[in-house]
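Thread: "does anyone have the structure for this chain?"

Original post by V.I.:
We have the sequence but no experimental structure in hand. Need at least a predicted one for the grant figures.
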Amino acid sequence: MVALKVRKFGNSLGVVLPKEVLNRLHSNEGAQLFLVEAPDSSYRLTAFDPGFEEKMAKAEDIIQRYRNTLHELSK
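Reply from O.Q.:
Generated one for you, tokens below.
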């Protein structure tokens, strides 16, 4: 567990992530991080867009259903 302190940055509030946390998230300055609410009302911080997984699942479904059509279009 890493304790973070809420600080004022201009007119906003924020937290500073320690270098060890950024390394584990494979993140750096300017990168996007996503704060995702979990079903148990907790939060999870991730460097990966949770919506991307859903979009890829839909794309794979389409690719699977229209495999022959896509194959013919690729010729």
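V.I.: this helps a lot. Residues 6-73 form one domain.
O.Q.: and The chain has a mean pLDDT of 90.
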